[in-house]
Amino acid sequence: MSFQLIGQAKHLLLSGLITSISFSAMPVQAQVSDARVNAMVEALRQAAPPNKANDGMYSQWQVLPGIIPSWTKQCLGRELTPAQFESDATAARNTVACIVGRELSKQMTATNNNETASVRNVACWWMTGNAAGCSSGATGTYVQRVVGFYQQPARGNNTPNRQSASPQRSSANTQASSASTTTSSSPVVLVSDRQVTAMVEALRLAAPRTATPNDGLYSQWQVKPEIIPSWSKQCIGQELTPAQFETDSQAAQTVISCIMRRELNRQYSATNQNEMATVRQTACWWMTGNATACNGGATSAYVQRVLNLYQQQAQGNNSSEQQPSASQRQPENRQISASSSNTQVSDVQVNAVVEALRLAVAGNPIPEGLYSQWQVTPGVIPSWTKQCIGRSLTPAEFSADARAARNTVACIVRRELNRQFQATGDASLAVQRVAAWWLTGDASQYDRDRASEYSQKILNLYQQQIARAN
Q1: Whose CA is closest to 68, among 9, 28, 118?
Q2: Which residue of 7, 89, 111, 131 shows the fewest CB atoms closer than 10 Å?
Q3: pTM of the full predicted structure?
Q4: How far apart are the C-alpha atoms of 172 and 129, rounded to whole Å?
Q5: Residue-wise over 271-280: b if at least 16 C-beta within 10 A, else e?
Q6: Is the model's pLDDT at 429 over the cut of 60?
Q7: What share of the chain is helix, strand, coil (3-state, %, to 5)?
């Protein structure tokens, strides 16, 4: 059985956030002119982040590799590799125009031919995979930037503006890749929980403290406000405002831990598993957005301070590494109030869902075209692994490395389970909705058709895992 986002493994661009698109039957769509399509294509190109070598995205439109084969086959009649897409500017533009034409037509229908609203919706979809939800924060800024380029006089200004559309890719406390590369044949080595915890605490202790209230940075980690909505949405399934991030220390710590795990894994691969070099480069990235730009002055002193604090924390954590966290000791079957908007799911709950998803298909031959014990479709694997373990794996690598597969699935499940907890306030219902999302890409299908039986099966397996853990 294909239990992994079948029919919607089309992942979008420019976010570290992984979203899914379900292409269901649509009403007759409004037709848009070539001029409008071309204006939108050019706006997306101009708004794209700088095209850096080895940043995991391809062409002037910065497209993630997982979507390129299916898009090009659909639009050009032949399946291109990411490298071919990158090197053939005409093919890249024609493919983007094809996809943009489809989405712009869809949004013109949805907005009753409101052109500006349609452009905003397409830009939001391009960034996040969802046509709605980009009214503020980094996504709101990006959407407004695309609209501005689209509305330029004559809609034909081909002068590239290569400024970053997204704060994530331009400054300290960013999601920008350090552009480090690893060989695809080497095994994935993941950092431990102890290392992540030590790094998170070291960054907290090393964070600058100003005497000025409202200094523009938030939480004990002093995070820039523009990155908070996208980081929190990626890591806990809910987009927090800077004020919410500031007042909820548990949510802040969960988000920082999520981001640190990704970056530590990335740097651990880049440094050939040199722990101290990994910590140095991660601290440098946290301060500057570049893992290798802290060779002198204030940034170098900051990196050394983080390293010293990390070593202290790592030594102190050795004796207590196996103790359960406070979240793990909480009863699983608590009913979460819908007003408790930032309550986080525990590791026990996440692990129970991960194991339930595995057991639901255990014992059956893995169908052709699906990978690992979780039977994941190949299109999502490169982006999910890059987001969750800091390195983009091929489907074959993902299938061959059970630990990397489990960590990636756990990362995605944590995000979705948090999202459904926030939406429902009910543990069992949240699990069923995650199961439906895993199967169909739509959590609301949990009580309908084939998703209903599967969701109930996952819930039963989940409850068995929780009973064993307790």
Answers
A1: 9
A2: 89
A3: 0.41
A4: 26
A5: beeebebbbb
A6: yes
A7: 60, 0, 40
